[in-house]
Design a protein that fits this description.
The complex is a heterodimer of chains A (435) and B (592). Chain A has 435 residues and is of the alpha/beta class. Chain A has eleven helices and 20 strands. Chain A folds into three domains: 72 residues, Thrombin, subunit H (Beta Barrel); 256 residues, Rossmann fold; 85 residues, no CATH class. The chains are: A alpha/beta (435), B alpha+beta (592).
């Protein structure tokens, strides 16, 4: 039996310290408070006999006489097909009123990284039916991509929509610091959309203890990894990773670590990367695609969280003013699918539509500064209106090939074929008849 | 030599990947390697601080499950790599574990505590001696040679040897494995067997050469903006800082593919695994521009991506540069690409934080600058003992926080490199590739190599380049002016200068990385193309109206642009050249 300790020496924030022996690093402990409350905790530092643990449920109301029992293993998550359709808290407790998962294999969370030579070059296009994504920055299977946004933008709606339309085998939602309403929103949409039976949710709401927040991505990704190895194409949604980074900050400050930028720990890059790098296309098995939300404090992309994220991920979607901005957004993997698995005119449509829209914005700017409106400007303004209506509006819901056709149609409505800067053969093949 | 075979200790503290160890018996060497024994694995660690009987070590693996009291065995040796034939074409992690060997054993994941032999022990190499019994040799001198892929691999006298030694025995030509002694040397009265492989501590520079020499020759990358405007010398150093998404990695990949060097060592340090995967799958399919063989055959990939252990990331850059220095000893021209040095610096920062050192700027350790300087100084052109030349050129990318070049890693790097290729967010947003900002970037080598450039490329080369740079500056000034006063507010002459600078930027400084022809330009082609462009830039056209000037330049620029997509010896290319000549002379403008 495991020895029980009943003398906590220090309580700092959500970290408790006590004197114990034979404890291993990252080991899990069960804590029972004097009033009967229980929580799990994890060893985060050992110095001689002094052991520091972070308490998942938080140390609020913790008595220094609480009992601590070490469990001899690190944090694990159960894995079986029975997880599908279920909802768990950050520490893996069912919160959907159903019983715990029985007889499931357990897998360590935060496991080792995939051997780079066991990865394959991503090559599958994921159709989302959102033209700003499909045409301009297509999502590729096994990609890791955040939505950079600010509070108040419809990023969770966008995430839910992609989950419903992306045709993944398994969807895993990791909710980090979600508002209760947002959590219910996801649940409803997934139920209505009929994907709940292939979804697993790990949800931490803003009211839950902060330490549990740190667990959500690891729990979600550990489960995703197991499904991936089993050959499934898994889509992981993580929202909001800024809340995750803030939890890291809180813990590291409590641990008296030297902060680097704006109080975040120096390891922020590695901490985020070790989660995002779980995105993978396994050689000979399934894949994990990660779509995350990173809210930018104050809309500032140079803030340490979006900044470090941008270096780690394979592009980003900027969601500002309710639309996906075509200029800051980027899918680094798009070259792997455009024109290769998608239609051969895809690249030409993407480039020329964006170039024309950029010119249209210049015209708008020019006119707003009081310069004269020319005939060319009129064309561009008309194009800008159509582009915003037919492509940028987030309500637009069409498959890629229809969107490409609509692209040709829109260009033909506004411009002459010599004005769009596309190779002659491509224009000949796709320019709408009679335009 | 310190006899530390008996040194043992036990764990007394664990904090992330840092462990504190109390030494039971024996001596400890700073930076020596030790192994800590867990029930399921034996993990490698390195001493980074010694305080009395206690030493602090960075563990190269995940420390989950480690406990106080676990035994630690010291090795007495600093963290070392194995050097010998068989390194080329390999993919290693930061500690020189061959990832392809780990692959067979453990399915998808990199389990901790697995250390494999970096070089094949069984393979026989065709050895040919180049010294005879009785010859005197110094450290690093060539004893024999074996063919390795496309290069002649020299077997070196032990690199750590002091003074000189006498060859006592040397095996005749034949096939031997790297573990067999192919020679015996008498060093200070002792006979030492020499095999084709040896170990070297990564954090010490290999200096078994006669002298370092002043780098004066161009390293050709086939990127026009680099080779022409901001050249890097063979044996020089350069850094590529840039915000995320500005194309650092694409640029590094192109440089690794097209540079005219004997071999390339790519260190993927703390970056995405996906990027390495692309290299691993692409390089074996691509041709080495120099030998025509597979590109992979001249490449070594050191791959410690962002989710792999941080301490091994710190080591990976040293592993890469050490392999580079080793091949330099064979008289070869080596290019080391480190992507990204910021992640390496962050690895130092993480460890420094755990050691509770007093932090410097942005919590980087105070020794950041000297570590960065120490790394870049390991590059260089050297004259070996037999007067052959070898070079290590080091190009490091920097990922500055917030894209701001004022941050400590960029600043410390700028102090020690010869060429600064700064990528700008603005240029990459405008889809300009490479997004190297011509106004911010510089190369000290253009003047350092002036004699050789003017001799080999063109008599007036450096003068022309400086004039082109001045035009870019002028063009930017006029561009700024126009945003305030509009095109109507500037003179026709200014507009012409502006259009010329735009043309230079658009048709020469930018390249299409995804086009088979335009992605790389040979230096011969650069010389011809640049001279033609220079001619256009120097011709003082005059126009009646601004519209006329614009129309003229649209036409001229388009011809220069289309020419980039034509192969050098194709009839299209010749056609564009004569068309350009024609436009310059007669065209819409009048020659003054």
């Amino acid at each position: 039996m495991f020895k029980e300790y009943t003398k906590i020496t220090n309580i700092i924030g959500d970290i408790i310290e006590l004197s114990a022996e034979g404890v291993t690093y990252r080991e899990l402990a069960a804590i029972t408070n004097h009033n009967g409350d229980t929580s799990l905790a994890q060893v985060i530092r050992i110095d001689g006999t002094k052991v520091s643990l972070q308490v998942f449920a938080g140390a609020k109301g913790m008595s220094n006489r609480a009992s601590v029992r070490f469990l001899g293993h690190p944090m694990r998550v159960p894995y079986s097909e029975d997880l599908l359709g279920r909802i768990f808290s950050g520490s893996g407790q069912p919160i959907d009123g159903k019983p715990a998962i029985a007889n499931a294999e357990e897998t360590d969370i935060g496991g080792p990284s995939v051997n780079p030579v066991k990865r394959v070059v991503p090559r599958n296009f994921i159709e989302t039916r959102i033209p700003m994504i499909d045409i301009f920055n297509p999502l590729v299977e096994s990609q890791k991509l955040p939505i950079f946004s600010t509070p108040g933008e419809p990023f969770n709606e966008l995430l839910a929509r992609i989950a419903l339309q992306a045709k993944a085998d398994i969807v895993i939602l990791g909710g980090i610091g979600l508002k209760f309403d947002e959590y219910i929103g996801f649940r409803r949409k997934f139920e209505e959309g009929g994907i709940m039976d292939r979804t697993v949710m790990f949800v931490h709401t803003a009211a839950d203890p902060v330490v549990e927040r740190l667990l959500v991505p690891d729990m979600a990704l550990a489960v995703a990894e197991q499904f991936g190895i089993a050959g499934k194409r898994v889509l992981v949604l993580l929202t909001d990773m800024t809340a995750f980074a803030d939890a890291l900050k809180e813990i590291s400050v409590a641990m008296e670590q030297v902060p680097s930028n704006l109080g975040y720990p120096g390891s922020l890059y590695s901490d985020l990367a070790s989660r995002y790098e779980k995105a993978v296309d396994f050689d000979g098995a399934g894949s994990i695609t990660i779509l995350a939300v990173t809210t930018m404090p104050g809309g500032d992309v140079t803030h340490p969280v979006p900044d470090n994220t941008g270096y780690i991920t394979e592009g980003q979607y900027y969601l500002v003013n309710g639309v996906i901005n075509p200029f800051g957004s980027l899918s680094r993997l798009k070259q792997l699918v455009i024109g290769k698995v998608t239609r051969d005119d895809h690249g030409a449509v993407m480039n020329s539509m964006i170039r024309l829209y950029a010119k249209a914005l210049e015209s708008k700017k020019k006119i707003s500064m009081g310069f004269e409106k020319t005939e060319t400007d009129e064309k561009y303004l008309r194009y800008a209106d159509l582009f915003e209506q037919r492509f940028m509006d987030l309500r637009v819901d069409i498959p890629l090939n229809d969107a490409l056709d609509l692209g040709w149609k829109t260009m033909a409505e506004c411009f002459d074929r010599s004005e769009i800067g596309v190779k002659k053969e491509v224009v000949d093949a796709h320019w709408p008849k009679g335009a | 030599m310190i006899d530390s075979s008996l040194t043992t200790g036990h764990v007394v503290g664990i904090n992330g990947n840092m462990m504190a160890v109390e030494v039971d018996t024996g001596n400890v060497v700073q930076n020596e390697v030790a192994f800590v024994k867990l029930p399921d694995a034996r993990l490698k660690a390195e001493v980074i601080k010694v305080i009395g009987k206690k030493c602090y070590m960075q563990v190269f693996e995940d420390t989950t499950g480690m406990a106080v009291g676990m035994p630690v065995e010291f090795t007495g040796n600093m963290l070392a790599v194995e050097l010998g034939p068989g390194l080329l074409g390999q993919i290693y992690d930061g500690l020189q574990n061959p990832l392809t060997l780990l692959e067979n054993k453990q399915e998808f994941f990199l389990q901790r505590g697995q250390y494999k032999e970096p070089i094949d022990r069984q393979k026989k190499w065709d050895w040919k001696p180049v010294v005879a019994v009785g010859d005197r040799v110094r450290a690093g001198q060539w004893l024999g040679e074996v063919p390795e892929k496309f290069i002649t691999h020299r077997v070196l006298a032990p690199l750590g040897m002091h003074g000189s030694a006498v060859v006592k025995k040397i095996l005749p030509a034949g096939a031997y494995a790297i573990t067999e002694a192919v020679a015996e040397l008498e060093v200070n009265g002792k006979t030492v067997p020499v095999t084709m492989s040896q170990e070297w501590p990564v954090k010490k520079a290999i200096k078994a050469y006669k002298e370092r020499i002043y780098p004066e020759e161009l390293l050709i990358t086939r990127q026009r903006i680099i080779d022409t405007l901001f050249p890097i010398s063979r044996g020089g150093t350069s850094c590529i800082p840039g915000p995320f998404g500005a194309g650092k990695t694409v640029l590094q990949h192109l440089i690794s593919k097209f540079s005219s060097v004997d071999l390339v060592i790519v260190v993927a340090c703390g970056e995405r695994a996906g990027e390495v995967v692309e290299l691993i799958h692409e390089f074996p399919e691509m041709k080495d521009p120099k030998t025509g063989g597979s590109l992979m055959d001249r490449t070594i990939i050191i791959c410690n991506t962002s989710s792999m252990p941080v301490a091994a990331r710190e080591a990976s850059v040293y592993t890469g540069i050490t392999l580079g220095e080793y091949y330099r000893q064979m008289g070869l021209d080596v290019l080391v690409l480190a992507d990204s040095t910021s992640r390496w610096a962050q690895a130092m920062r993480e460890m420094s934080g755990r050691l509770e050192e007093i932090p410097g700027e942005e919590a980087f350790p105070a020794y950041l600058e000297s570590r960065i300087a120490g790394l870049y100084e390991r590059a260089g052109l050297v004259k070996l003992h037999d007067d052959a030349h070898g070079a290590v050129t080091l190009i490091g990318t920097v990922s500055p926080a917030g894209g701001n070049f004022e941050e400590p890693v960029t600043q410390a790097t700028l102090k020690v490199v010869g060429a600064f290729l700064g990528l700008s967010r603005k240029r990459s947003d405008e889809r300009k590739f490479p997004a190297i900002d011509p106004l911010d970037s510089y190369s000290l080598y253009i003047d350092q190599m002036a004699d050789s450039l003017n001799k080999n490329l063109d008599r007036e080369w450096t003068k022309m380049v400086h004039e082109a740079e001045a035009l870019l500056v002028r063009g930017a000034e006029i561009g700024k002016m126009m945003t305030v006063v509009g095109e109507e507010g500037i003179s026709i002459d200014d507009l012409v200068s502006y259009l010329k600078s735009e043309m230079l930027d658009f048709t020469y400084l930018q390249q299409n990385a995804f086009d088979d022809i335009d992605c790389a330009a040979t230096i011969e082609r650069q010389v011809v193309d640049f001279k033609l462009l220079y001619k256009a830039l120097k011709t003082p056209f005059s126009f009646e109206t601004k519209a006329e000037a614009r129309k003229f330049f649209v036409n001229l620029q388009d011809n220069f642009y289309q020419k980039n997509y034509a192969a050098e010896d194709s009839p299209e290319y010749a056609k564009f050249v004569s068309k350009i000549e024609e436009i310059i002379v007669s065209g819409g403008g009048r020659l003054v």
